[in-house]
Design brief:
about 260 residues; L-fuculose-1-phosphate Aldolase; 9-stranded mixed beta sheet; 9 strands; binds Dihydroxyacetone; binds zinc ion
Length: about 260
């Protein structure tokens, strides 16, 4: 099995263990075009072609591993090829076919994930993986207007522990509530990623993250959620956490050559 798919299985296990992946919650897609071998490239379709619903020229002929629709992360962790599949985008850039291992239909969020991948390619981004999950404490933050203001959550989360800015240097964007799976949610997510975030919070729903691989996307969400936990622990101890000072943040940013 491809290294990328083994990594997806490992991350799916973490998502379940963290309580971020109830039932079929969350989605993972990875652009594996660079690592599929000749066997997959030559393989005849085992199902499809199916309509994407969008025409995306940037991903013509690309291969993606996608979590299956209705599948559970905890099952995917054990058996990624029974709970997801490898798809190939056809030459018309508007359809996909399933090429391995079994005819598992990809996530219902496929059009929005593929639109994000197409956008990343168009930008010349090295990012190959996208992750949608329901991290409890980050979702809780989005139930409060204060944390939906531009960069308010970023500043608070960065200031909880020095590592957060080092490992999530672009901070966290916010996408106001939209219906799950909708085109408006997908477009708003792409816009927020374009505004230079790797991770965006979907109000009252979850997060969407992109990075070079799925482990890195997971790590960004994990460090942000860790900061949210420290904030909550402080509040539970009865005080508003002080947060690192501006001078401490500045010193950190300079030492790690971080943007902003
Ligand atoms: O696919 O979490 O928001 C499962 C979801 C959709
Ligand atoms: Zn969701």
């Amino acid at each position: 099995m491809l290294k990328e798919i083994e990594q997806v299985a490992e991350v799916a296990g973490y998502l379940w263990q963290k309580g971020w992946a109830e039932r079929n919650g969350g989605n993972i897609t990875v652009n594996i075009t660079g690592s599929v071998g000749p066997d997959i490239r030559k393989a005849a379709a085992i199902a499809g072609p199916f309509e994407i619903g969008l025409t995306l020229p940037e991903i013509k002929g690309c291969y993606f591993y996608c979590k299956g629709t209705g599948k559970r992360m905890r099952d995917l962790a054990r058996d990624p090829m029974d709970n997801g599949s490898i798809i190939r985008i056809t030459d018309d850039c508007a359809h996909y076919e399933i090429v391995a291992d079994r005819p598992v239909m990809p996530t219902s969020e496929l059009p929005s994930h593929l639109a994000v991948h197409a956008h990343l390619i168009a930008k010349g981004s090295p990012y190959k993986a996208s992750l949608h999950t329901h991290p409890i404490e980050l979702v809780a933050l989005t139930h409060c207007k204060k944390w939906l203001e531009k960069d308010a959550a970023t500043r608070m989360l960065w200031s909880m522990i020095p590592e957060t800015k080092a490992f999530c240097p672009r901070g966290v964007g916010v996408v106001p509530y939209q219906m799950p799976g909708s085109v408006t949610l997908s477009n708003a997510t792409i816009k927020a990623l374009d505004d230079d975030y790797d991770v965006v919070m979907w109000e009252k729903h979850g997060v969407f993250a992109v990075d070079v691989d799925i482990m890195s996307a997971f790590d960004q969400v994990d460090v942000l959620n860790k900061s949210a936990l420290i904030y909550i622990a402080s509040r539970n101890m009865g005080f508003e956490p002080e947060g690192m000072t501006d001078a401490q943040m500045k010193e950190m940013s300079e030492a790690f050559h971080l943007p902003k």
